[in-house]
Amino acid sequence: MVKPIIVGAHYGFRDWLAQRVTAVVMALYTLVFAAYALSMPDGSFESWRGVFSGGFMKFATFLFFMSLFFHAWIGVRDIFMDYIKPVGIRLTLHSVVALLLIGYAGWAAQILWRL
Q1: Which of 13, 37, 49, 72 suits 93 as a labelling partner, its CA being 20 to 30 A distant?
Q2: Domain-by-domain residue ranges, the chain?
């Protein structure tokens, strides 16, 4: 039996679609955030706190960060798979990036729900 050799990050349509969906989520959030920022009378801490006091903006911001981290994960993973050939180094880099992104997600949640 011949075992296929997987070379590169050939995940195909699923990852292509995930990249596009996360990009659209981030673009929509950017428009919503810009509308909120432009509609504020001043840039005081109280105004910014008011924007994030409601559940919608906290959820939208958290969704933005999750989309950003997933988008980054797919891109970095594909770059590592295409350009880093030694499996041990690639696995180490994948692990470090995954743990960092998970940590950043927890940090974002902590910041958003601490306000």
Answers
A1: 13
A2: 13-114
pLDDT averaged over 10-residue windows placed end to end, the chain, 115 residues: 60 86 97 92 87 89 97 94 94 97 96 83
Q: Given the structure tokens 């993973």, which residue do they identify?
A: 77
The CA R_g of the chain, rounded to the nearest whole Å, is 19
Among residues 38, 29, 39, 37, the alpha carbon closest in space to that of 61 is found at: 29
Sign of CA dihedral 36, 54, 49, 101: negative
Fold adopted by 13-114: 3 helical TM bundles of succinate and fumarate reductases (1.20.1300)
Nearest to 112 by CA among 38, 49, 68, 70: 49
